[in-house]
Amino acid sequence: MAKGGGKRALRGRAGRMQGGRGSGRASSGQVRFWGRHAVEAALQNPDRSHHKLWATREGIASLDGELPDNFPVEYAEVADLGRLVSKDTPHQGLVLECAPLEDIHLDDVLTTADGKPLVVLDQVTDPHNVGAILRSAAAFGAAAIVTQDRHAPPESGVVAKSASGALETVPWVRVVNLARSMEQMAEAGYWRIGMAGEAETTLAEALPAATPVALVMGAEGDGMRHNIAGHCDALAKLPISSSIESLNVSNATAIALYAIATRTD
Q1: Which residues are registered as beta bridge partners of 218?
Q2: Half-sphere exposure of 60 toward its Cβ, with a 13 Å CA cutoff?
Q3: What is the spatial distance between Cα 147 and Cα 145, in angstroms, rounded to a whole number?
Q4: Whole-structure pTM value
Q5: Which residue among 69, 151, 199, 256 is buried most deeply as judged by most CB within 10 Å?
Q6: According to the model, what pLDDT value does residue 244 have?
Q7: Do the beta carbons of residue 37 and residue 55 sit within 8 Å?
Q8: Which residues, other chains included, contact 124 with Cβ-Cβ below 8 Å and sequence gap of 6+?
Q9: Residue among 117, 217, 231, 225 nearest 171 (CA)
């Protein structure tokens, strides 16, 4: 779906939602997204295979660009769309069902990263946090986020909504062995900084002048696992006030990425 000079109504083969009701869950092997930013970004992603779009006429009019000819669209009422997603979900008149993105390999990211930071998430399982981290990664030019496949949320509508389009633009690498992947990052020239509240050094003090950085974030509460912390070149903390114990992991990641983006030689 190409960008244009202004917003244009999307075209497509349209019909009424059969029976005015949805299944409430995605078809087998598909994921379901909702909300303008998540849906629009997925439609614009040439690497995304789309299955079907349910929409109100107002939702279609809010999108920027044009659908391909014969794109499967069904017009529906707001209440009908509410049955396609979880209760009280702000779908903004748009629900898209599509295939998950294909796997991305760490070797490919390291080859093309060009010194951009990596964000490593150790057992961060909340999809809202992962989505918000994807959004910050896009904002501050991170090359990718890296998670362990068994301890991270799946690609989902909650992640896509929280990411506000960044799920389609920031590579998400899922690996079997996170520690081994961190060794690969070191071999590729990355300085691995683990964020830990108990660290003595602040992030500003731990940042190298020009070396690419892999920012390692642990789960809220438990923090990084011992083995993952042991694979870091440095542990660092944010200089937050003593009046608060810690920051949400997505907020801390955003601040740390800003610090990396604005460091000086």
Answers
A1: 122
A2: 20
A3: 7
A4: 0.87
A5: 256
A6: 82
A7: no
A8: 130, 133, 147, 152, 217, 218, 219, 220, 249
A9: 117
